């Protein structure tokens, strides 16, 4: 069955209470446009580079304001509410970058902890070490919903095609990629990576993004997107500031794409052998 999906673009600051209020306002706007599934970005609850300041306001899952607000919105609006991710304090002192999907009754239907940590050094001098503060997830899931089979990823996960292929092989029809992409990497790769994951797996991709200059001094790329299984961008937001984008999602388009390009069925196992190139005195056999 088809459904209307929304991606909510935010510019989260350092105060989870203010971010929760912004999330609620934008989610209500999405539902007013007919959305029954709404996704928010990675780190909806807080973007804070100062780790000590972040830890001072972090809460465990049972006491987190974003989790509480997400559940309440799902019940109030009768929707499937997807908090793309928020920072959750763990018992060992580290943090989980955790996404939540709430059903219309407010229950948590799925949790997903970001698997791949963004440990990079960029050309513009930006350096990120998520693994220093966050505990990586280790489990991918495909969730059966009344309207679609849904797979989960967060931001940097989009650079690891095997995660998406495994979910597609498990039946996923819609892949979710909430993110807080940096401006530099976003300009280079955001759209092409999202469209590639959609095309190579014949699935819809819904990606709610953080956008603009944040209170902690970082700049994120924005351009939240909804993409169909043929790689067509159905809806896209701008480069900065809040936005709500909405599109109709028809899972029948997934089967149609798979029938045209049956690469999931045609895939074959193979081995990789590393061989030597030219050697002194001749050519390797």
Characterization of the model:
The protein has a 6-stranded mixed sheet with strand order 5-4-3-2-1-16. The protein has helices at 16-32, 51-57, 65-77, 161-169, 183-201, 252-260, 263-266; strands at 3-9, 37-39, 80-89, 95-102, 108-113, 119-121, 127-129, 142-144, 149-152, 174-176, 204-207, 211-213, 219-221, 225-227, 233-236, 243-249, 278-279, 282-283. The protein is α+β, with helices and mostly antiparallel strands and 285 residues long. The chain has a single domain (3-283), classed as Carbon-nitrogen hydrolase (Nitrilase/N-carbamoyl-D-aminoacid amidohydrolase, 4-Layer Sandwich). The radius of gyration is 20 Å and the shape is globular. The chain has 7 helices and 18 strands. α1 packs parallel to α3.
Topology summary:
Layout (H helix, E strand, L loop, with lengths): L2 E7 L6 H17 L4 E3 L11 H7 L7 H13 L2 E10 L5 E8 L5 E6 L5 E3 L5 E3 L12 E3 L4 E4 L8 H9 L4 E3 L6 H19 L2 E4 L3 E3 L5 E3 L3 E3 L5 E4 L6 E7 L2 H9 L2 H4 L11 E2 L2 E2 L2
Parallel strand pairs: 1-2, 2-3, 9-10, 10-11
Antiparallel strand pairs: 1-16, 3-4, 4-5, 6-7, 8-9, 11-14, 12-13, 14-15, 17-18
Helix pairs in contact: 1-3
CATH structural class: Alpha Beta
User: How many distinct folded domains?
Assistant: 1
Largest sheet: 6 strands, mixed
Which of globular, elongated, flat, extended, rod-shaped describes the shape?
Answer: globular
Cα distance, first to last residue? 57 Å
Organism: Rhizobium leguminosarum
Family: Belongs to the carbon-nitrogen hydrolase superfamily. NIT1/NIT2 family.
InterPro entries: C-N_Hydrolase, C-N_Hydrolase_sf, Nit1/2_C-N_Hydrolase, UPF0012_CS
Pfam families: CN_hydrolase
